[in-house]
Amino acid sequence: MKPLKVVAVSAGLSQPSSTRLLADRLADAVRRRLAEEREVEVRVVELRDLATDIAKNLVTGFPGPALREAIEAVTEADGLIAVTPIFTASYSGLFKSFFDVIEDDKLIGKPVLIAATGGTARHSLALEHALRPMFVYLRSIVVPTSVYAASEDWGGGGDSRTDGLAVRIDRAAGELADLMVHRSPAAPAADEVVVPFAEQLAALRP
């Protein structure tokens, strides 16, 4: 059997980056979950290295070789991990711009784990009001558990209302691994049929 491909997209800007660290921990957790059943190939795409190519693509409509290769890795992955820093209560512009240059139908049915980092836990809902709706719009399959890591989460054990970061990572990784192993192959897109408006009205008449 072909190895399962896991691609983690990290939109961290600094180096070292807590966003990249979270992407690595999630990818490693998914690899561990899948290791007993399938061989796994993991790749991390660092968007900071592609920022210029992404900007040029937005202007010209054509990706450079490095960006094209990254897009192919994402669209051909069996499972996607998408991690962004949270800026002003939403995903970063670099993160959004990367997914803007991918054709809308390329992520249909793809299992996706969404995650984010930020300085304060107040931004954690950005996962649900920004990232999850974006991937739902792209018709991806987003796992139930999203993972947010605030500064105080690193090395913390959680509190009475939230599990620790390690627990959330493990749960989300398990959900992504299950989807990757058990999902049915996506059906080819059917050609869209345009029904004339007059026919649509006629069908409504008794």
From TrEMBL:
Record-linked Pfam families: FMN_red
Record carries keyword Flavoprotein: yes
Signal peptide as annotated in the record: none
Domain of life (superkingdom): Bacteria
Entry GO MF terms: oxidoreductase activity
Family matches, as InterPro entries: CE1759_FMN_reduct, Flavoprotein-like_sf, FMN_Rdtase-like_dom, NAD(P)H-dep_FMN_reductase
Residue span, NADPH-dependent FMN reductase-like domain: 5-154
Keywords: Flavoprotein, FMN, Oxidoreductase
Protein name according to UniProt: Oxidoreductase
Source organism (scientific name): Planotetraspora thailandica
